[in-house]
Design brief:
Alpha-Beta Plaits, 4-stranded antiparallel β-sheet, 32% helix, 13 strands, 9-stranded antiparallel β-sheet, 28% strand, globular
Length: 371
């Protein structure tokens, strides 16, 4: 059955629509006043973050331990840049001592009722049309290991036992793909259902705990998974969110999965991600073209594009890299760090760049239902 482009609507956090963030918080018994004081010290700092519009703190009228923080942002990119920064981690640290659980939800604002907002809240625009998803949540983690330890880390990551795929009635682990490039590791996951529930489930599995402990001595950033604060700090710093996904047609057929690590210049990560996203949306207009599907992960200047190809990577380096002509290649060339001999505007340069940024596939595992 042929899938039309309209049925393959991209899922993206790269547009300029306004964002509503909802943070559900469970406060420890007797710590409500401490939590309120910590929030008071935090909210004035958050108000100065670029892209922040407003926020509210609410307490449940039924259960005093349940609190709700909502915030509005001009768009998703400035929020993601802040929430993944070391400054954010330091800013929210005082809250950790008085809360036992948090859950963050992010929504594009599509409709609103009432009077026109004041000028300071008119930044950004409303989402124009509903997004059509495939019910799968995509996320990645990335971290670096000590130089020289790459073969041992790859061996550990390739040989671990897969955890139980079924989390609960509505959540299941569908696919985990691990890549390495030099000493950088990227672990991409696809989950049906609740991402937070799945991540907690994985962290509790003995197979995963064993492999995490096995790679601990080789990490460049020390961590202690028995210490909740150390574990939280590591996994927050390792988060590599999916900011754009172009789904495959239902009749994709056989594909090979690759990941490309782009050497982005400082401050150019968002521009490069948007350029690659536009390219992949255009490439999706060719249902039988080389690019079947793609997911772009971004955190600061760490930009990874995971792409499912119908042909070998080097057979079509233009589409594999994410450019569709000299003009797009020249723009991307200005956003990334490449040697003069690897200019993306030449066929030879494209091939060299593709070979340099192609990550090594360590393992690609699917749940039995997805195999």
């Amino acid at each position: 059955m042929t899938t039309t482009l309209s049925e393959r609507t991209p899922q993206s956090a790269l547009d300029a629509t306004r964002l509503r963030v909802v943070l559900l918080v469970e406060v420890n018994e007797g710590q409500q006043q401490h939590f309120l004081e910590a929030y008071e010290g935090l909210r004035h700092q958050v108000a100065g973050v670029p892209g922040h519009v407003t926020d509210q703190l609410c307490q449940s009228i039924e259960d005093p331990s349940q609190w709700l923080i909502t915030s509005e942002w001009e768009s998703a990119p400035p929020f993601l840049a802040w929430v993944e920064s070391p400054e954010h981690m330091a800013m929210v640290k005082p809250l950790h001592t008085c809360v036992r659980d948090t859950r963050s939800l992010r929504f594009s604002i599509m409709r609103e009722t009432g009077f026109a907002p004041p000028p300071e809240r008119q930044r950004g625009r409303l989402q124009t049309a509903p997004r059509v998803g495939d019910g799968i949540v995509r996320h990645a983690l990335t971290f670096t290991v000590k130089p020289g330890s790459e073969p041992k880390v790859a061996e550990i990551l390739a040989s671990y036992c897969a955890p139980k795929a079924r989390v609960d009635d509505r959540t299941e682990l569908l696919r985990t793909t691990l890549f390495m490039h030099g000493n950088r590791v990227v672990r991409a996951v696809e989950i049906k259902g609740d991402l937070i529930a799945a991540m907690r489930h994985v962290a509790q599995q003995p197979e995963i705990r064993a492999v995490e402990e096995a790679i601990n001595p080789y990490l460049e950033v020390d961590r202690d998974l028995t210490d909740p604060e150390s574990a939280r700090s590591f996994f927050t710093g390792a988060a590599l969110p999916a900011v754009h996904h172009m789904p495959a047609a239902r009749d994709t057929g056989k594909v090979e999965r690759h990941a490309l690590l782009y050497p982005v210049k400082p401050g150019c990560g968002l521009a490069a991600a948007r350029l690659l996203a536009r390219h992949d949306e255009l490439a999706a207009g060719e249902p039988d073209g080389p690019v079947a599907a793609s997911t772009i992960f971004l955190r600061g200047e760490t930009l990874v594009r995971m792409v499912d190809m119908r042909v070998p990577l080097q057979e079509d380096p233009v589409l594999a890299v994410g450019v569709n002509g000299p003009r797009t290649a020249a723009v991307l060339d200005r956003l990334i760090e490449v040697p003069d001999t690897t200019a993306l505007t030449t066929p030879e340069g494209l091939r060299h760049f593709l070979a340099d940024c192609d990550m090594d596939l360590i393992t690609d595992r699917r749940s039995p239902d997805e195999s």
